[in-house]
Structure formats: structure tokens, C-alpha cells
Amino acid sequence: MCLLAVACGAAQEPEPERVTAERQCDDALSPGAARALEMVLKTKRFEHDPRGGLERGANELVRDYETARGLTLNPPVCRANPPTGTERVDLRFGLYVDDDLFGDVHPRGLHPYDMGVEAQSGPKKAYLFVRCVSPRLEGSDKRPARIRGTLVFNDSELPDTVPVREANLTVLHSVTLAMARELGCEDDAGLDEEPVFEALPE
Prior knowledge:
The chain is α+β, with helices and mostly antiparallel strands. The chain has helices at about 1-10, 30-40, 55-65, 160-185, and strands spanning about 80, 90-95, 110-115, 120, 125-130, 145-155. The termini are far apart.
């Protein structure tokens, strides 16, 4: 009886807290992205981020592709925040249409980069647009899925500098690459293994 109780108790124990940057977002962060996250949130310790967000997010994108014909925005696939303070980073994915691209429009606080179909990054948010052809997305060989990754701070006093912009885009690139692989996108949705930063003229 005691052994059974112990075994049952062990099976019901909550997942241990993951407090390192590397363990955030279903372990999707590359070493460089983990360092970037530590830099922008000014911490090496993070609250527990439950697993399963990437799988859920990929399933939501598959569903959107089958049913939606416009911009979609799903719940965060992951959230990173320090154990103290209110600052946090949310990463979300949804579908977009070509009219949702920034193009020649340069919103204040965002700066364009030559990454994916389009990328924009600033001190408070970053965007990365890609196209995906995958067996999970029926018909995407003729109509590629247009996927938008978004990184957003709920509150940030970070300066608008090149290191901050590139750090935010590094985190978003890493999770977007992981999402592309979760979906089985051909050629990793056009993303390199590591981010290559080429700022575009504004």
C-alpha cells in the first residue's frame, strides 16, 4: 500500500520549474537566442513556462490554414518572464495575407531586416514573416501558408539600439525556426540555422 501511494504521488508531482533561458519555449532557443533573452529581460532566471506550446501553436496554424482567409492571432506559444517584476515577453504565431506586410511603411520604433519574407524589430516588439510548404498543410504546395511570428513585451524600457533590435529578432528567429520544423516546412520556411542580420534602408 505504501509503495503504491509513493508511486502514485511521484506520478502526480508537478513538472519541475525550468528557470534557465535555454529551457524556455519548449527548449526552442538556440544558445545565442538564450543569451539574447537574458539580455533583454536582464535576468538569467525565468518563471516556469509549461511545455506543449509549440505543438499547440502548430496545430492552431494547421487549423487556421484550413479555415481562415485573413489575419489570425493565436494565444502565445510561450511566455518568458523573470521570477520578479512585471516585464515579460510573449511569442505568438498566426497567419497573414500579403496586405499585412509592412512593405515600404516604417512604423516608429520598428526597423526592417532582410530575413524571411520580411522582418521588423524594435525595443518593444519584433515581427518575422515566412512562407511554409508542408505535408501538414494540405494544398500549401500551391498556396504556401503565410505565417507571422510576433515577439511582444508587455512593458519595456529598453533603448532603441541595434543590439536590442537584433537580440529581440534573434529570439523570434529561433522560435520561428522551431515552429517551422514542428510544422515540417520545406527548407525550414526559408530561414537560416542562425539569424543573419542585414538591416534594410529606412
